[in-house]
Amino acid sequence: MARPAFKKWFISIFSQAMERSTYILLSSLALILMYWQWQPITTIVWETENTILSSVLTGLFFLGWIIVLLSTFMINHFELFGLAQIFDNLKNKQTANPKFQTNYLYKIVRHPIMLGFLIAFWATPTMTAGHLFFALVTTVYILIAVKYLEEKDLKKFIGEKYETYQQEVPMIIPFTKRKQ
After folding, report:
1. Sign of the dihedral through C-alpha 30, 111, 124, 77
2. pLDDT digit string (tens) for 132-170?
3. Which among 9, 24, 126 is positioned nearest to 72, based on CA atoms?
């Protein structure tokens, strides 16, 4: 649903103002279904017995979720979740295209929301086989979706400004671009 072709098809049938919030709603419902039907695989892959290490991993877990939340506000939280579009529609106003922004964490990595998810998914004092499976699958999904789908769409939509941003700022892992 995040691909331009689907969006174009969706707005040919429904209001453009509904597109983003419908995407968020259906994605959330898919996640709820997955969580509801998830069958835990409780075999322990690793478990930290060191209290300090456990605390550090738990702290990193929460840091990942804080990065996700703060990153949404560093762009436009309400536009990202489709609320701005619905609100503008209620006021009979057309929502402007999102502005390309590279503030705060977006100066360190191009996709801080995905970085936050990866930290949250991997930082755990107890890693079960089910959690490891989830972390591996979501990591592969994030890397493929960002590199081969989202980045391609952003280059097409934003153009040269985004290509320059790609050359200067790492995709997900901070501080991995060499200064030239």
Report:
1. negative
2. 999 999 999 999 999 999 999 999 999 999 999 999 999
3. 24
Write the DSSP assignment of 67-130 as a string of letters: HHHHHHHHS-HHHHTTHHHHHHHHTT-PPPPPPP---GGGGT-S-HHHHHHHHHHH--SEEEHH
Which residues are CB-contacts of 168 (< 8 A; sequence separation ≥ 6)? 177
Shortest CA distance to 154 belongs to which of 88, 106, 91? 106
The helix or strand, by DSSP H or E, that contains position 45, with its residue range, turns out to be strand 44-47
Owner of token pair 């790492």: 170
Q: What is the DSSP letter of 175?
A: T
3-state secondary structure of 34: helix
Q: How many helices (H) and strands (E) does the chain have?
A: 9, 2
Q: What is the pTM of this model?
A: 0.86
Rounded-to-integer distance, Cα 35 and Cα 52, Å: 30
Is residue 109 within 8 A of residue 103, CB to CB? The reply is no
What is the Cα–Cα distance from 6 to 10, expressed in whole angstroms? 6
Residue owning tokens 């509801």: 36
For the chain, the structural domain boundaries read 45-168
Between CA 11 and CA 20 the distance in angstroms is 10
- Apex 154 CA angle, 150 and 158, nearest 5: 175
